[in-house]
Give the backbone structure.
Amino acid sequence: MPTSITFEEGKHFKLNGKAKESGNKFTKYDNVFGMNLTKFSGKAIFTQRGRPMRACRISGYVTFMVCNDEMCRRPRMPISNLALPAAAAKPPPTAQKRRKNGDACPAPGYYGR
C-alpha cells in the first residue's frame, strides 16, 4: 500500500493537485512481496499544495505501511490544527516586475511586508 495523505477540505481550503514525494527514494525488488517497491532511506518528504481561502487551521491524516520480515502494519498518523495563513490575492499586472530570467514575480512589499 502506498503512503496516502488526506486533508479535510472545505470552503476554507482547497487542494491543488496530488501530494508529491521527494527525499532519498529508491525502488528495489522486495522478497516478502515478490515485487518492486518504492522505499525511502532516512527521510521521506511529502509536499501538498493547496490554497487557503482565509487564515485557517486544517486537519487530516497520513496513512503509511511499515513492514519487517514477519508482518506489516498500516498506521494512521493524524495531522491536526496545522495553521495556514490566508492566501495572498493575485497581484495586479502593475504590481509585478520581471526577473532576469523573464518570470513575473510580485513587487516587493505587495503582501503587506
